[in-house]
């Protein structure tokens, strides 16, 4: 398959929308990461997304809409809580998991009776969805398990020749995927953390927000948060559920080609240990890359983390040493969620 590389002109966006209308696949920018779009109501089109990405079939898609009112196509009823969330955070990087209508194909939802929906805050994405005239299922536009794409070049590297078109727009503004909030049951629960934090959500709806316990485990029920906002052992959490309710809950994600180790502890000790390990590994002939953000630079870390992983892959490093962020901050917690998955929960404490 030859993949068209389109720009953001009206003519090219119309071409992208036409491909989507006709059951094809188009990658396009959003404010979070690049998404790989297909008509969410066309089972055959959605099946092509799973095939192109190499994505497990029980990993649900996030459905993107261009008008808040379009959520009515996907779910039978809106609670006051959902309306408040839409009013406060859409368009923007918040995905809502809601009961689905029968018209939404099971393949789009990973076989679940809920559907994940968001309205992106990106003019190009919104225009493509509007022109296509249908909700667009759009997981991240990368090969499954690889770092999420925040630049058009990342999409080209992973999916050129596998999809119909790539809309080459600007670099993504946020840099990590949306917060996923399950509002299908009594207690609002964060399934995937993002730049919209629990504190932001609680302030908007006046309710306590919980976290899914799988966010505090490594998939084997061993490594998680220790109750003081630090990384420790808690024996809690279960990742082996038959069907994850959100992308990023069950399967290995965001992995660079190199082995990656997170160094966690007091800041000066982290810096010293990274330098010590870098020198030690370079002496035995390994090429070492370092990811170390400023201590409180959580927004910058969110923006740069996936891009840094991609750059180190391009440099063919053998080992990545990354300094842990404080997960007491909501955005820091979201970045650490990605960092832990990228490293396979490989942590050294100092």
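^ Assign residues to that structure.
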């Amino acid at each position: 398959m030859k993949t068209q590389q389109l720009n953001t002109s009206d003519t090219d966006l119309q071409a992208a929308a036409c491909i989507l209308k006709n059951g094809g696949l188009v990658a396009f920018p959003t404010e979070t990461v690049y998404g790989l779009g297909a008509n969410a109501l066309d089972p055959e089109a959605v099946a092509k997304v799973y095939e192109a990405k190499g994505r497990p079939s029980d990993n649900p898609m996030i459905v993107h809409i261009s008008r808040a009112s379009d959520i009515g196509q996907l779910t039978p009823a809106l609670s006051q809580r959902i309306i408040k969330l839409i009013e406060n955070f859409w368009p923007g990087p918040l995905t809502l998991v809601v009961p689905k209508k029968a018209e939404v194909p099971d393949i789009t939802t990973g076989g679940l009776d809920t559907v994940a929906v968001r309205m992106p805050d990106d003019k190009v994405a919104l225009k493509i969805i509007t022109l296509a005239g249908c909700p667009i299922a759009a997981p991240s536009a990368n090969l499954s398990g690889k770092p999420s794409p925040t630049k058009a070049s990342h999409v080209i590297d992973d999916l050129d020749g596998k999809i119909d078109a790539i809309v080459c727009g600007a670099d993504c503004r946020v840099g990590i995927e949306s917060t996923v909030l399950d509002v299908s049951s009594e207690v609002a629960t964060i399934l995937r953390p993002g730049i919209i934090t629990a504190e932001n959500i609680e302030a908007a709806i006046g309710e306590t927000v919980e976290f899914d316990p799988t966010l505090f485990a490594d998939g084997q029920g061993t490594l998680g948060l220790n109750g003081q906002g630090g990384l420790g052992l808690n024996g809690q959490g279960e990742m082996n559920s038959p069907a994850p309710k959100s992308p990023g809950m069950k399967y290995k994600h965001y992995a660079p080609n190199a082995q990656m180790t997170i160094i966690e502890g007091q800041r000066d000790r982290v810096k010293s240990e990274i330098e010590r390990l870098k020198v030690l590994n370079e002496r035995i002939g390994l090429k070492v890359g370092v990811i170390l953000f400023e201590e409180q630079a959580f927004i910058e870390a969110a923006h740069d983390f996936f891009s840094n992983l991609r750059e180190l892959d391009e440099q063919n490093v053998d080992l990545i040493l990354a300094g842990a962020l404080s997960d007491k901050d909501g955005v820091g917690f979201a970045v650490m969620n990605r960092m832990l998955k990228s490293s396979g929960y490989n942590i050294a404490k100092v």
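Residues 325 and 336 are 6 Å apart (CA to CA).
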